[in-house]
């Protein structure tokens, strides 16, 4: 009998705590996020997570949800999450770092789908934090990062004083030169017929030719640089053999390899020596994981699209918002990211059009003729779909239209420039090339003199930008490491900013994103 009473009491307490968790709080006059966090013994960040609209402040009469943390009978700690429109296993994994299997274990009803307004359990994973400003946990969102940003940057800056500059620096380039298919790298300067060089060798040669101009510029400025070039032949075994050589014991910086499979090998080996290594061109999402010495230049697509979402929601949240996408997993994921900055629970002027075929039949009837602005979000990277949709939107000749798209559109040369201007197209971007810039003129002139050809936009400019940036940081601070603040910089075709909170065991990925638009037959930056 006593055991039964104890069980009933435990059950009662459990049910009571769950009931408490789902009671909305009506905000009273004078209440703030701080006062509520003290009243309910919960962090401000947890309140804002459960109530995204609270990031703009509280007002009297506002109803907000106060989440709590629990342990179930299997001692799994969890918090409650209120399901929002369009949320999926993917979007929750992006937000919390929890996979579908773990979510279904605590929420079996999710097999029937996500129902907006329902509460689901999110299992908690607690990490040991040895240095809080270097770590973000699985639930840290954009709000927390912004709040911690100043403290994070100030601590970063204060750390640079303990590193001293060296008289000279050893730099290695791990490039897929395929010298086994060519005689020697110097032959590049003497060939009039470029087809005599193995096709893929050109990528590495263009990159290195751009890098040499950066090195020469810094040498003239007084930096003593010893350059070492190694041919990976895009072979993991050769990469392994190269990086394990004693020559890499004294390297201050390694640029490359280009390809992800080779980069992971080199990063792991160089991580034991704490040698910084740069992934110059890869877009893979796992390159810096468990490699604190690794730096990845290309920002994630998620970073670019969510940055764009914050911009859109800040200026156009009250306007007529229309998402047009294909019925594909990729477009669904991109749409979720593009809407991440919106509070869809209270959006009465939002709609989504899912296109089943390769192109949309018509679009003019979806435009609100009474709206001040018709904002179209197109989260697609399918060139044919985007080209057709922009053509049909342009045909409406509606001046209220403003279109937001994906970073990949910048490479779509088939898009009509007039359409991009008429539709006020905005896209995220990590840097774009301006041939009017004096530094660009300097680079092009030197490149043509040294190689007798025009620079390749993707490889040659990247070689210059990446080499110039990291060598400048090395010269300025004496080292490149997670413990050093790296000054953000905008260069020819790339912008750089690696100063963001990260897990200590991981490397850094470029966070620099800007939003560009097409205006008067040129590209302009509207937000950096």
Structural write-up:
There is one protein chain. By secondary structure, this protein is α/β, with parallel strands linked by helices. It is 35% helix and 16% strand. It is globular. The termini are far apart.
SSE layout:
Layout: H1 2-21, E1 24-26, H2 33-40, H3 44-50, E2 63-65, E3 69-71, E4 77-82, H4 89-96, H5 100-106, E5 119-123, H6 142-158, E6 169-175, H7 201-220, E7 225-231, H8 236-243, E8 253-255, H9 260-271, E9 277-279, E10 294-296, H10 301-316, E11 320-326, H11 329-338, E12 350-355, E13 374-377, H12 383-395, E14 401-404, H13 417-422, E15 426-429, H14 438-451, H15 460-477, E16 489-490, E17 495-496, E18 508-509, E19 514-519, E20 522-527
Parallel strand pairs: 6-7, 6-8, 8-9, 9-10, 10-18, 11-12, 11-13, 13-14
Antiparallel strand pairs: 1-2, 3-4, 4-5, 15-19, 16-17, 19-20
Overview features:
20 strands, 528 residues, disordered N terminus, 6-stranded parallel beta sheet, alpha/beta, 4-stranded parallel beta sheet
* Radius of gyration from the alpha-carbon trace, in angstroms: 26 Å
Strand coverage percent: 15-25%
Largest sheet, spatial ordering of strands: 7-6-8-9-10-18
Number of strands: 20
Terminal CA distance reads 68 Å
Secondary structure: helix percent: 25-40%
Structural class by secondary-structure content: alpha/beta
The overall pLDDT average reads 81
* Largest beta-sheet characterization: 6 strands, parallel
Q: How many distinct helices?
A: 15
Shape estimate: globular
Give the uncertain stretches in residue-range form.
Answer: 1-23, 70-75, 126-149, 184-195
């Amino acid at each position: 009998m006593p055991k039964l009473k104890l069980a009933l009491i435990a059950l009662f307490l459990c049910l009571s705590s769950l009931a408490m968790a789902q009671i909305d709080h009506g905000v009273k006059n004078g209440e703030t996020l701080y006062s509520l966090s003290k009243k309910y013994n919960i962090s401000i960040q947890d309140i804002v997570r459960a109530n995204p609209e609270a990031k703009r402040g509280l007002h009297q009469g506002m109803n907000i949800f106060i989440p709590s943390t629990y342990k179930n009978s299997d001692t799994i700690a969890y918090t409650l999450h209120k399901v929002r429109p369009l949320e999926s296993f993917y979007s929750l994994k992006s937000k919390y770092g929890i996979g579908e299997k773990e979510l279904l274990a605590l929420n079996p009803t999710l097999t029937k789908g996500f129902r907006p307004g329902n509460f689901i359990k999110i299992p908690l994973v607690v990490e040991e934090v040895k240095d809080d400003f270097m770590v973000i946990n699985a639930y840290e969102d954009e709000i927390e990062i912004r709040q911690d940003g100043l403290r994070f940057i100030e601590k970063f800056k204060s750390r640079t004083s303990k590193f001293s500059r060296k008289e000279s620096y050893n730099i290695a380039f791990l490039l897929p030169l395929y010298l086994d298919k060519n005689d020697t790298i110097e032959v590049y300067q003497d060939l009039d017929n470029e087809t005599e060089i193995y096709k893929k060798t050109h990528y590495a040669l263009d990159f290195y030719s751009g890098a040499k101009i950066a090195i020469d510029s810094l040498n003239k400025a007084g930096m003593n640089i010893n350059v070492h070039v190694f041919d990976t032949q895009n072979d993991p075994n050769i990469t392994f053999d190269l990086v394990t050589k004693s020559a890499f014991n004294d390297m201050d910086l390694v640029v490359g390899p280009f390809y992800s499979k080779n980069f992971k090998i080199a990063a792991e080996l160089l991580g034991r020596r704490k040698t910084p290594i740069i992934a110059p061109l890869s877009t893979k999402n796992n390159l810096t994981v468990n490699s604190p010495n690794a730096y990845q230049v290309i920002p994630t697509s998620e970073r670019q699209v969510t940055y764009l979402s914050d911009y859109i929601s800040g200026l156009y949240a009250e306007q007529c918002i229309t998402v047009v996408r294909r019925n594909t997993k990729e477009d669904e994921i991109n749409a979720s990211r593009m809407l991440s900055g919106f509070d869809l629970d209270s959006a009465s002027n939002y709609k989504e059009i899912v296109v089943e075929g390769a192109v949309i039949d018509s679009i003019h009837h979806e435009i609100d003729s009474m709206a001040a602005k018709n904002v179209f979000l197109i989260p697609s990277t399918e060139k044919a779909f985007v080209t057709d949709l922009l053509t049909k939107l342009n045909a409406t000749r509606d001046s209220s239209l403003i279109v937001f798209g994906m970073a990949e559109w910048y490479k779509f040369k088939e898009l009509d420039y007039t359409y991009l201007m008429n539709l006020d197209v905005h896209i995220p971007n990590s840097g774009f090339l301006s041939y009017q810039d004096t530094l660009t003129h300097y680079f092009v002139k030197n490149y043509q003199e040294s190689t007798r050809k025009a620079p390749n936009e993707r490889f040659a400019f990247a070689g210059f930008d990446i080499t110039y940036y990291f060598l400048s940081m090395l010269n300025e601070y004496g080292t490149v490491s997670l413990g050093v603040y790296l000054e953000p910089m905008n260069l020819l075709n790339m912008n750089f900013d690696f100063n963001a909170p990260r897990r200590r065991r991981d490397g850094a990925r470029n966070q620099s994103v800007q939003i560009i638009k097409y205006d008067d037959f040129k590209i302009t930056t509207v937000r950096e």
